[in-house]
Amino acid sequence: MNKRLVKLKDVLEKLYSKYNHHDLIKPDPLQFVYRYDNPSDMEVAALLAADLAYGRVEQIQKSLTNLFERMGKSPYAFIKGFGKAEQKSLKGFKHRFTTDQDISDLLMLLKKVLNRYAGIEEFFIQGYNPGDRNIVPALSKFCNSLLNMYAAEHNGKTSRGLKYLLVNPANGSACKRLNLFLRWMVRDDDVDAGLWKGIDKAKLIVPVDVHMGRLCKILGLYNRKTVSLPTAIKITEGFAEIEPADPVKYDFALSRIGIVENCNGQYRNACEHCELSLFCCQR
To answer: Which of 16, 145, 211, 221 is surrounded by the fewest CB atoms within 10 Å?
Structure first.
């Protein structure tokens, strides 16, 4: 590891120690996973929370609060018994361009999965190969399997809303939301739930959104103009040079700088107290 990476690792470890604590999870959508104690509830809550993790933080929290209130005490039981009454209870739900019909379509697919498998992990792992370079092929198979399941019952067609919730990395998307879900499920520390035991965390891909993209470019981990799947892989490979067994380790801590500290990459007085100032601040 060169001197620059050694210095960067030291900074990232300090950020991890500062931010990676359970009581600092809010306002992250991960907070909704910890509303439940049952792993089955936590798993389905995680997929829904990650899927709707787009837009303003305040709106995400509002929408997820609304959705989980409609689903009652057990999201898992709600999905297992999903029928006309449950679909009716979702009527009028909307998060930006995700509608109640989109959520109903997803929950109906999850019902089929949960009636056949012990959980989402068991279904996901059907497409997982420990020999793959990363989690991308497994994630692609996961999305394809669900979308094909839907298409088989809808004359070969799939709705745009469902495709957005199950965005496929095979199409070049960075898949921020689904990679976020996988981080929550696979990693196990004071923040991430670590419910899934069958997947190597070294295979995970960094969930890259606007905030992470900006910070990682500042840190010199990539220089692409757009945030795409190749961008996310490049960023992950950069972190893997620092922490090969756990390249997604610093994601939560770095995202706090963007979301909580409102970093926009421009110098301000608060930058003098930021751990990343050694790498990014110019007056």
So the answer is: 145
Q: Which residues of the chain have pLDDT under 50?
A: 282-283
Q: What is the pLDDT of residue 283?
A: 39
User: Is residue 210 located within the same domain as residue 186?
Assistant: no
Rounded to whole angstroms, the Cα distance separating 175 from 185 reads: 16
Q: Are residues 283 and 254 in the same domain?
A: yes
**Residue 189 falls in which region: left (phi positive, over 0), alpha (psi -120 to 50) or beta:** beta
Contact 216, 12 (CB under 8 A): no
Q: What is the CA radius of gyration of the chain?
A: 19
- Main-chain dihedrals φ then ψ at residue 99, nearest 5 degrees: -105, 170
pLDDT reported for residue 5: 85
What count of other Cβ atoms lies within 10 Å of the Cβ of residue 255?
18
Is there a contact between 171 and 214 (Cβ–Cβ < 8 Å)?
A: no
Q: Tokens for 45?
A: 């809550």
* Residue from 49, 69, 74 nearest 165 by CA: 49
- Residue 14 to residues 17, 18, 20, 107, Cα–Cα distance (Å): 5, 6, 10, 40
Question: What is the rounded distance in angstroms from the CA atom of residue 66 to the CA atom of residue 228?
Answer: 31
Task: Assess whether 12 and 33 both reside in one domain.
Answer: no
Same-domain check for residues 83 and 151: yes
